[in-house]
Amino acid sequence: MENTQRRSTAGAATEPDDRPGTGTALELLIHGVGGTTPQEMLDDPRTVRITGDDTAAVFRRADDADAEREPGRREGPVPEAYVWCNLTSGNGTRALWLLLLPFMVVNLAHWMRPTARGRRRTVRLYGLLVRLAGLSLTVLFVAAACEVALDLAAWQCAGTYACAERHSWLGFLSPAISGDGWWSAPGRRLALAALVPTAVTGLLWLLSLRTWNAYESQQPMSHEPEEDTGRTALNRPGFWYGRRLVARLRAAHTAAGLLTVAAAVGSAAARQDREPGGPAVLAVLGVLLEAVLAAGACVVVWVVCRRGRTERRVDGTLDRHLVRYLPLAALVVLALTLLYAGWERPGWKSAGRLPGDAAFGALTLAQGLLVIVLAGVAHTLHRSDPDRRAAIRGLAGPAVAMLACALGGVMSGGVSQRVSDWLDGTGTSMPGPPVLLTWQASVIPPLLVLLLGLAAWLARRAWHIARTERAAVAREYADEAADPGRTRRIASVRAMAALTDRGPRILAALSAATLLLGAGALAGALATDRTPGEATRGSYAVVHGAAETAQALGSWLIGFGFIVLVAGGRRAYKDASARRTIGILWDVGTFWPRAAHPFAPPCYAERAVPDLTWRIATWTRATGGRLVISGHSQGSVLAAAAAWQLPPSTRRRVALLTYGSPLERLYGRWFPAHFGPEALGSLHQEVDCWRNLYRLTDPIGGPVRLPGDDGPDVDRPALRDPLAHGRTATHPLPAPILGHSDYRADPAFAEERRRLLARLRPQVPAPRNTDEPPTGR
């Protein structure tokens, strides 16, 4: 790749007498999931970087680098490739982001809000509830780290001779092995172990700050806010710049994590000080500490509830005092708590579990109530403006929030159980993790059974669809020789592609089952205060056997699941073919800004959308030429988002060509408030023209279902795939079934691009002024 050559943005580098002519036409190509190289996109081994950096850039063929100066040199449009795959791929260590999957999932729930009319307070309540659910996940994540480091390692194992003897690295914390050494006091053990969850919290804060600076700190192009019709928020100037909210949430979640560690350490010491005969001063300090922790928790909740996203303008304001001093104050409280816990307390011995088991039950109950209330709010919004295409009748957001909470609970329970099994080899010397976490880990096998049942249902549906599609395939290729085997193969691919539309039913079943099983686990833990195996002892043999099996399998499955998750994520980052399988879900999750959780993986669109907007606006302003935004798969979503961000005068001068696009099939159904029928319809009316290509064999792309108004419908009839059923004079070798790939190889692509360019009319270039960016003013 000849990417060492650096050129300024085309059309903004010469004097007025060298201004490009108005006959220039540009095709801005945006790739989709899985990424590609500039050479593949431009079909030329010699490419140059026109603008951008190593993370995301615009490339052209070397021969087209100065095409604007010679507009009559070539017949077709000048192809230009925007390559953004480095925003979502990289070295294998980035697969560790998958361990924060619950944070990404709950952030998705924020954007799945149903369409609403005149319900501003209800919309705000929806966002507030999702932010609170995100806060509960942070507390749960840090509490799980506290459970492992403080309770299982420092309190239980170090306080038990048999366990500490097996793990020599804990010997200096054991009173029996170290001979009542200085670190063997329970409070000091807890203070030392608290460094682990504190470091985890600090790492999350650092990752959030660094990824913001690397991905999301790009200033969008300024333009006057448009009339807010309620169709979509994607055209608001500040939509792709959430600096203020992310900073506030980062400060609040960091403080929440630190206060959680302080509560885990301080509550044990305060409980000991309340025992009769203890020092009165320490007892008073314990009461004061608990009051400070309660006040800190109230402040954190107030910060999370106080302000949502500011989208109607580019809000560069930063709540500096809050962002700086809230985490610092929490850190000071934690330091004082560790000092208080490490004070000498003669006669204090660690026994049983660390006080604070009820915290996990309270978190689980709070999350369940939040999801139920969120479902009620979402139902109210959906009823105010029903959308028959919306997934789960507007309840997709609560369903996804439920899965996020379930993921957090299952991961916490599974990890705690696995660490407990590792530390306590005999299974008899330690009490183990809180009973609720064991119950939650035991929920995994029933969920897997449900997943197997749903997979069997999907297989049955695919079989029925394939039988129906055989007749359709035979009619479509009636002019070619019959080949029953080929017909079955094409019908099967179409049937598998159609299963994407069954996603809402799968999610509804999973979320409902998760809510019921989670409620059952909470009820079982509270009612029995014993593990599932112990609670069913003395009952029917089959019941007891099933409970013990679920309990044993649950902890092993979560460990295996972690390995699969990290290995699969690592492969997805390094292997393009794996990214095409896994990447769509990951790229959908990281497309949206961090509005509910600051520790979610970074949003690549906050870099990509401003890139595209600036490129389109500066090129059209400088050249007055015709421009077609050509987006494939996820690239079509970026194309639509960039078009919404353009000034209205510029938006009316570009055309959209989308192919393999999930705009309606995935985004329109799952994110109706932003990509619903009215939003896509408004985009169709505001750009010059739009055409969409799709195939029945494509599991991701589909029609956008918009009428043509004054021109042709947006959707071209489904493309033939394969192009030939058997061997023909045009295709002497068997034509492949392309599915989601190679749309540009279809003759229909060039035909539709030519028609779009014919509809566009060049404009007179604006006066040259390279010092000022284009605005819509």
Automatic annotation (TrEMBL):
Keywords, comma-separated and alphabetical: Membrane, Transmembrane, Transmembrane helix
Q: So which residues are the signal peptide here? A: none
Residues of the region (Disordered) are 1-24, 702-741, 758-777
Biased segments, Low complexity type: 759-768
Q: Which domain of life is it from?
A: Bacteria
Q: Which SUPFAM superfamilies match?
A: alpha/beta-Hydrolases
Protein name according to UniProt: Integral membrane protein
Q: What organism does this protein naturally occur in? A: Streptomyces virens
Q: What is the lineage of its organism?
A: Bacteria, Bacillati, Actinomycetota, Actinomycetes, Kitasatosporales
